[in-house]
Structure formats: structure tokens, C-alpha cells
């Protein structure tokens, strides 16, 4: 086989490999930022304006956590303890909060669109509209 054909075939393989791996390189900073925010939240319970999209916070102890203005879209918060957490203006759309404890949590102006709240304790929580929930009391 002529060397120019081999060179061309090798270049095509390298190009194909680079093309296939490109999405992973582009996603790395997003994943790194998300994991830095996760670490900050779990260590300090304070993460204002953090990017926690699709975060796995199942059964996490987030009592008194400050999550104001955070992005928690599609996050897994099943069974998490968010007692007295501050989630004002957070985006919890599509988040899974089944069985979570949200008692006395501040949810004013929080986006709960399509959030799963089955069996969630919302007793005393300040809801997005400012009302106080009696759900789970």
C-alpha cells in the first residue's frame, strides 16, 4: 500500500478520534465547576448562586444550608434534610425532592416547576408565593 494512502488513513483515524473525544473536553470545565460547588456546599453548607444542576444530593444533610440563587435543576435531593435551608430564588425545576425534609425552609420566589415533592415534608416552609405550608405538619 502506498505511504500516501497510509498517511491519509492515519490522519482520518486521528481526526475521528479527536472528533469523538471533543464533547468530553468541552464538558470538563462544567463538571469541574459543579464538583467544586458540591464540595463547597457539603463542607460549608453555604453555596449562594452555585451551579448544582443534576447534582446527586440524595440523603444529604443540608440543614440550615444557604442555597440562595442556586441552580438545582434536575438535582436528586431525595430524602435530603433541608430543614430551615434558605432556597430563595433558587431554581429547583425538575428536581427530585421526594421524601425530603423541607420543614421551615425558605422557598420564596423559588422555581419548583415540575419538581417531584411526593412525601416531602413542607411543614412551616415559606412557599414561592409567600404562603406558609402546612403540608406534612
Structure description:
- The protein has one helix and no strands.
- By secondary structure, it is mainly alpha-helical.
- It has one domain: E3 ubiquitin-protein ligase SopA (Pectate Lyase C-like, 3 Solenoid), CATH 2.160.20.80.
- The longest helix has 42 residues.
- The N and C termini lie far apart (79 Å).
- This is Pentapeptide repeat-containing protein.
- InterPro entries: 5peptide_repeat (IPR001646), Pentapeptide-BTB/POZ_domain (IPR051082).
Shape: elongated
- Provide the number of structural domains: 1
- Indicate the mean pLDDT: 84
Report the β-strand fraction as a percent range: under 5%
Name of the CATH superfamily: E3 ubiquitin-protein ligase SopA
Number of helices: 1
InterPro entries: 5peptide_repeat (IPR001646), Pentapeptide-BTB/POZ_domain (IPR051082)
Protein name: Pentapeptide repeat-containing protein
Pfam family, one: Pentapeptide
Organism: Limnofasciculus baicalensis BBK-W-15
Helix/strand layout:
Elements: H1 3-44
Short précis:
The chain is 31% helix and 0% strand. The protein has one helix and no strands. This is Pentapeptide repeat-containing protein.
Descriptive key words:
Pectate Lyase C-like, mainly alpha, 1 helix, single chain, 31% helix
